[in-house]
Structures are given as C-alpha cells and as structure tokens.
C-alpha cells in the first residue's frame, strides 16, 4: 500500500525498504516505478551497487521526477560524494513534491552516513522489512511466474522443485525460466519426471 501511494501520489515522506539480499527489494522498487509510469508519472529506478558502475552524476536532474527508487543504498553510505548528491536529490524531491523510495540490506538504524543531515532526512520516513517467503509463498510465487509465462505449474511439481533446489526466489525463477524453455523445446508438460530429467 505504501509503495502504491508513493508511486501514484505526490508529497510522501521517504520510504525505506530493507531485507537481506535476494528477498525481492529490487523487484518491489521496479514494480513501484512501473506503477508510476502506468499513471503517467515520471519515475526512475537507480541501482547503487558497485556492479551497476553508475557514476555519482547519475542523480543530477532526478529531483524533477515524481518518484525516484534507489536500490542498494548500503553500497554508497559513507561515501562523501554520494552523500552530497543524495542530500541534494532529497531536497530537490521534497521541494518539488517528488517521492523517494530506498532499499537497503539493513534498517536505517544500522546505516552509517557521514553526513548527519542526510541520515536524519532519510531516516525520517516509514520503514518496512521485507520478510522471506515460506515454502507456500515460494510455491505461490513460482506458480504466478509460470502463469505470467503462459503455462501452469502443478502443485506437486512446484513442491518437487522446492525440495531439491536452492531456496532463493531469484534462483527458483531462473530455474523455472530454464524449465519453461526446455519444455517448449521438447513439447512436454512440467511434470516431475520431465523436471527430474532436465535437472
């Protein structure tokens, strides 16, 4: 509900979403940006991890957007040039009625910023922890992903996968995509014997 509000209406305080890696934070931020675009709002998703290779200048001009979602905030906390750019972005968004959504591997209290004014502003909003899915939640997520891809994943096949492969949702989705391609190539249903053969 909070992400929906940030995506569709102006003037919300910062929203901080946190969880360990592979819990779906990036997916939530990207979904918020997609929702904002659906209602005609200008939005951006910015991954801050080192793998993205983005320079600090990427934040310039984003204060004019309606929604900015910053992922992996922990990657730039404590870096003076990033903190100055984040402070400027925060102020520009606040002055223009734009919203800021942050994602990090830890809660605000555990984030170490050198710029005290930035820390107090980013920590002033609402904080949510993303909970890991249990096995039923993972099964439902797999089945939903399968439906988006245009096929059904039977309960027994989904439970078979959950019992034999890694627990990360990203890893499960990647495997499901591979199984879908293999099933299309072989013109087979995703039955346990077929999955066993592919694995």
SSE layout and pairing:
Elements: H1 2-8, E1 15-18, H2 25-38, E2 43-47, E3 67-71, H3 80-96, E4 99-104, H4 116-122, E5 126-129, H5 135-149, H6 155-164, H7 169-186, H8 192-198
Parallel strand pairs: 1-4, 1-5, 2-3, 3-4
Helix pairs in contact: 1-2, 3-4, 5-6, 5-7
Model description:
By secondary structure, the chain is of the alpha/beta class. The chain contains eight helices and five strands, in the order αβαββαβαβαααα. A five-stranded parallel sheet has the order 2-3-4-1-5, with helices on both faces. Helix 3 links the parallel strand 3 and strand 4 (99-104). Helix 1 runs parallel beside helix 2 (25-38), helix 3 (80-96) packs across helix 4 and helix 5 packs across helix 6. The two termini are 38 Å apart. The model has no long low-confidence stretch (mean pLDDT 91).
How would you describe this structure in keywords?
alpha/beta, five-stranded parallel β-sheet, 8 helices, elongated, 199 residues
Structure, briefly:
With 199 residues, this protein is of the alpha/beta class. The protein is 48% helix and 12% strand. Strand 3, helix 3 and strand 4 form a beta-alpha-beta unit.
């Amino acid at each position: 509900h909070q992400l929906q509000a940030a995506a569709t209406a102006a003037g919300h305080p910062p929203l901080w979403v946190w969880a360990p890696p592979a819990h779906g934070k990036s997916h939530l931020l990207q979904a918020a940006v997609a929702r904002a675009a659906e209602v005609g709002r200008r939005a951006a998703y910015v991954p801050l991890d080192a793998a993205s290779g983005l320079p600090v200048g990427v934040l310039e001009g984003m204060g004019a957007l309606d929604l900015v979602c910053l992922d992996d905030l922990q990657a730039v906390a404590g870096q003076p040039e990033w903190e100055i750019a984040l402070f400027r972005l925060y102020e520009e968004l606040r002055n223009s009625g734009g919203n800021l959504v942050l994602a990090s591997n830890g809660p605000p209290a555990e984030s170490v910023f050198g710029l005290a004014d930035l820390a107090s502003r980013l920590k002033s909003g609402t904080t949510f922890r993303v909970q890991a899915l249990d096995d039923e939640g993972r099964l439902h997520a797999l089945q939903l992903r399968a439906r988006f891809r245009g096929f059904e994943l039977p309960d027994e096949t989904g439970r078979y996968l959950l019992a034999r492969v890694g627990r990360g949702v990203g890893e499960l989705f990647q495997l499901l995509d591979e199984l879908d391609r293999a099933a299309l190539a072989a013109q087979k249903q995703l039955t346990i014997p077929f999955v066993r053969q592919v694995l």
